[in-house]
Amino acid sequence: MTIQVNGDPLDCPEKVVTVTDLLDFYKLDGKMVIVEYNQTIIQRDQYSDIHLQKGDQIELVHFVGGG
Length: 67
Prior knowledge:
It is a single chain. With 67 residues, this protein is mostly beta strands. It has one domain (2-62): Roll (Ubiquitin-like (UB roll)), CATH 3.10.20. It is built from one helix and five strands. The chain has one helix at residues 19-25, and strands spanning 2-5, 8-11, 33-37, 40-42, 57-62. The N and C termini lie far apart (39 Å).
């Protein structure tokens, strides 16, 4: 299944089924991340309820500290 992540196509591994799985795949679980799912910002408590489908558009914005 292919989805768009930050504008780039991603052929999802079989283990990536939900938004939570996608964050695990990118090693962003537990970090401050904003997720936009098909042009709608979703809350963290929705991540495991949203099952990814072919053609979904995901934008991931995470914060990086520095000085």
